[in-house]
């Protein structure tokens, strides 16, 4: 079967399964964007649970179908929460998504991200600079360029993160999603580019964070690669549709959630994808 058709069929199955089963994907996420993350997960048909403390994070990891760990607005007690949650997810063999927001800003954040190399997250989602920085931190390829990280903003292009993304995916055995004007998603064997979205996505807080939460929901119903591609596709579709209707960032955010909710499995699978087989 053609790879494009096979991927579309698996995307449709993932979307329909989520809509029919309402799976929970718990999160320890950025306090600035927590509300948007939860609303996006609910809009696509999932269930959200937001926690901070280590024992609660372990309980959510065990109870949910997948989990999302976001390193934004880092708190000191995450030194216990993140490693314990990662260990619980690995022990239970549950899929999980990390977003290495702010990598390189502080010592504790960087230390925990370094430790996550051994846990091998199912999906890593972030901007180009974060992917380059994480691959360098994990010492996955001596030829990687130095990342240009400025807070939570990317200073590198998506294509400049290609090698880092492939290296990360091949190490984890999962998927890596690099967000930008043209998203790049890879499992180390195939590389997908997904287009769409809106310029308003850079004018609201939480577009990237909520995408990680949505990918976690889809990971309850499919492989990491299919979940990541499906998440990128529905975001680009909803962004396009919302952008045509919105008069500014506030109306865009409202319409974006509506279009996440309204998107059908067939709509999402029909979103343009450029698929490349890697050697």
From TrEMBL:
Required co-factors: Mg(2+)
Catalytic activity: 5-(2-hydroxyethyl)-4-methylthiazole + ATP = 4-methyl-5-(2-phosphooxyethyl)-thiazole + ADP + H(+)
Pathway: Cofactor biosynthesis; thiamine diphosphate biosynthesis; 4-methyl-5-(2-phosphoethyl)-thiazole from 5-(2-hydroxyethyl)-4-methylthiazole: step 1/1
Enzyme class: transferase
InterPro entries recorded: Hyethyz_kinase, Ribokinase-like
Keywords noted in UniProt: ATP-binding, Kinase, Magnesium, Metal-binding, Nucleotide-binding, Thiamine biosynthesis, Transferase
Domain of life: Bacteria
Protein name listed in UniProt: Hydroxyethylthiazole kinase
Gene: thiM
């Amino acid at each position: 079967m053609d790879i494009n058709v096979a991927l579309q069929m698996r995307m449709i199955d993932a979307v329909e399964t989520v809509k029919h089963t309402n799976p929970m994907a718990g999160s320890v996420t950025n306090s600035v964007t927590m509300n948007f993350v939860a609303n996006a997960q609910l809009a696509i048909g999932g269930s959200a649970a937001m926690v901070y403390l280590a024992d609660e994070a372990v309980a959510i990891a065990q109870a949910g179908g997948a989990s999302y760990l976001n390193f934004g607005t880092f708190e000191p007690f995450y030194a216990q929460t993140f490693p314990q949650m990662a260990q619980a997810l690995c022990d239970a063999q549950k899929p999980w998504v990390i977003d290495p927001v702010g990598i390189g800003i502080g010592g504790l954040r960087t230390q925990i991200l370094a430790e996550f190399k051994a846990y091998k997250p199912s999906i890593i989602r972030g901007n180009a600079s974060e992917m380059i920085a994480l691959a360098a931190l994990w010492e996955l390829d001596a030829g990687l360029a130095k990342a240009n990280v400025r807070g939570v903003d990317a200073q590198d292009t998506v294509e400049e993160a290609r090698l880092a993304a492939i290296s990360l995916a091949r190490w984890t055995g999962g998927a890596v999603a690099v967000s930008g004007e043209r998203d790049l998603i890879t499992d180390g064997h195939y590389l997908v580019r997904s287009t769409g979205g809106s310029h308003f996505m850079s004018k609201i807080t939480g577009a990237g964070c909520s995408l990680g939460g949505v990918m976690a929901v889809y990971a309850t119903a499919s492989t990491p690669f299919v979940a990541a591609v499906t998440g990128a596709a529905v975001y680009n579709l909803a962004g396009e549709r919302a952008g045509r209707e919105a008069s500014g960032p506030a109306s865009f955010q409202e319409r974006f959630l509506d279009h996440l909710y309204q998107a059908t499995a067939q709509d999402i699978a029909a979103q343009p994808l450029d698929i490349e087989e890697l050697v």
